């Protein structure tokens, strides 16, 4: 008997699915796996061209089938989509709107011969569906990256090493580039996958709360400690803890963290009882920690402990090949969340999104796509659904914009000048409120403070000369 993942049955009604599976086994000696609707995203890749057969035993199955069909079509995945439905489902007409997007529709049990003839295609050559439970780690990582961020597939080998070995990992990159996603991927592919994955946003914590957040505290440890609290290092158990914006930690807290990494030991605030951290530590930063070490704001010994395996995530403006898959995945997700019947993204809208520089990276892209989905009508996301800000910036002929006098054109100088200008304008719009400016820029207040210090903006008073004034005015349409 042949088992083939070229044909997979997707069903809520397991009894009906087993009956169909038994028919195929008896008719053509083919064992077709049966999966749930929620398992489908883990099977699909842009390379898999097998067939999904949705088994609809009740009209209420139509909602889940519609969601999978839309998400598959939006993301341009090559899997074939067909439905086997009972007479009750066919009579209800609930699946009729999906007819243009389905390869075949069969009525069970009235069309067994037609179903059998069609199922023969499952034995034809092609790329089978993934088997998440048995596939190699490298295959899992590659599948998840190629579905969303294909430019990062060059990291597969290094990510496999990080997943296989219980060492600290450092991930560097601008805010919103996907550092949390990468950390979660390492966790999901490690032996710790069954345990918790916790994120600590270090940049949002004030200095006197960091120790309590990390290590917990006992009742009465300080004025507002009305009850004992379990810290993140204990709560993570044998899972993974991601310390985001680790560069914002003060030297005192860096020393405490170094001790945890070296010995695993820590004490809750107000307690003399030593506990052991069993979690794996992954650190993420928006800054180059090597530069912070040279400036004396980050401990050299801690940097070396964190830098066992490291990854650098390029900004989205340097990864144009990722925008298409990211946009389609977001449209699929938000389309389902908001009940929009979107089956595609028009090429013109995608070109506009690819032309935008995305200073806020993936986080900004997700916000724009979410807004577009909310305002969309029809079955395709179009240009007029996008925000005016994106349309104005994307339409600007960047290649013809004049560069300021004396600028030598290096990438570092371009980035720093643009970043400094964005900070100044955000502060101006926010009435010099660092809290509101940080929210506008998509970073923490601590990160904004550090960047202002780096660009010598803390003492700035009076009128400010913005770099790239002509450049910025033309890009913004001013």
UniProtKB/TrEMBL annotation:
GO terms for molecular function: ATP binding; sequence-specific DNA binding. InterPro entries: AAA+_ATPase, AAA_lid_NorR, Homeodomain-like_sf, HTH_Fis, P-loop_NTPase, Sigma_54_int, Sigma_54_int_dom_ATP-bd_1, Sigma_54_int_dom_CS. Gene3D superfamilies: 1.10.8.60, Homeodomain-like, P-loop containing nucleotide triphosphate hydrolases. PROSITE patterns: SIGMA54_INTERACT_1, SIGMA54_INTERACT_3, SIGMA54_INTERACT_4. Transmembrane segments: none annotated. Keywords: ATP-binding, DNA-binding, Nucleotide-binding, Transcription, Transcription regulation. GO terms for biological process: regulation of DNA-templated transcription. It holds the Pfam family HTH_8. The keyword Transcription regulation applies. Residues 145-374 form the Sigma-54 factor interaction domain. SUPFAM superfamilies: Homeodomain-like, P-loop containing nucleoside triphosphate hydrolases. This is Sigma-54 dependent DNA-binding response regulator. It comes from Frigoriglobus tundricola.
């Amino acid at each position: 008997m042949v088992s083939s993942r070229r044909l997979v049955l997707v069903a809520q009604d397991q009894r009906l699915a087993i009956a169909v599976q038994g028919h195929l086994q008896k008719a053509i000696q083919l064992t077709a796996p049966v999966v749930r609707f929620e398992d489908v995203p883990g099977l699909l890749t842009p390379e898999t061209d097998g067939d999904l057969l949705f088994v609809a035993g009740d009209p209420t199955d139509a909602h889940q089938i519609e969601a999978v069909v839309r998400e598959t079509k939006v993301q341009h995945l090559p899997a074939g989509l067909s439905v086997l439905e009972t007479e009750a489902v066919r009579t209800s007409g609930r699946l009729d709107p999906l007819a243009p997007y389905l390869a075949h529709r069969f009525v069970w049990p009235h069309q067994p011969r037609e179903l059998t003839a069609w199922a023969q295609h499952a034995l034809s050559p092609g790329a089978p569906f993934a088997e998440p439970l048995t596939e190699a780690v490298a295959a899992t990582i590659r599948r998840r990256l190629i579905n969303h961020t294909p430019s990062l597939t060059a990291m597969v080998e290094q990510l496999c090493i990080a997943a296989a070995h219980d060492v600290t990992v450092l991930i560097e990159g601008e805010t919103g580039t996907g550092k949390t996603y990468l950390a979660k991927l390492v966790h999901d592919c490690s032996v710790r996958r069954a345990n918790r994955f916790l994120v600590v946003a270090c940049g949002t914590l004030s200095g006197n709360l960091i120790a309590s957040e990390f290590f917990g505290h006992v009742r009465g440890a300080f004025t507002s400690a009305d009850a004992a609290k379990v810290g993140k290092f204990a709560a993570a158990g044998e899972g993974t803890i991601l310390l985001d914006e680790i560069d914002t930690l003060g030297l005192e807290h860096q020393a405490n963290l170094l001790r945890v990494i070296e010995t695993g030991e820590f004490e809750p605030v107000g307690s003399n009882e030593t506990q052991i951290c069993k979690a794996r530590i992954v650190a993420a930063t928006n800054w180059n920690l090597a530069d912070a070490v040279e400036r004396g704001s980050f401990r050299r010994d801690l940097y070396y402990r964190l830098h066992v395996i490291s990854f650098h995530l390029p900004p989205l403006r340097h990864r144009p090949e990722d925008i298409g898959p990211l946009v389609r995945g977001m449209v699929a997700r938000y389309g389902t969340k908001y009940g929009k019947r979107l089956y595609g993204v028009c090429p013109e809208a995608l070109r506009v999104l690819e032309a935008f520089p995305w200073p806020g990276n993936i986080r900004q892209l997700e916000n724009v796509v979410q807004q577009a989905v909310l305002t969309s009508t029809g079955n395709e996301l179009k240009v007029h659904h996008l925000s005016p800000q994106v349309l104005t910036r994307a339409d600007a002929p960047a290649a013809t914009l004049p560069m300021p006098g004396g600028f030598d054109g290096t990438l570092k100088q371009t980035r720093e000048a643009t970043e400094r200008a964005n900070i100044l304008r955000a502060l101006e719009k926010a009435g010099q409120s660092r809290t509101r400016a940080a929210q506008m820029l998509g970073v923490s207040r601590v990160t904004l403070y550090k960047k202002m210090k780096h660009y010598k903006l803390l003492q700035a008073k009076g009128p400010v000369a913005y770099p790239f004034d002509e450049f910025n005015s033309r890009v913004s349409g001013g």
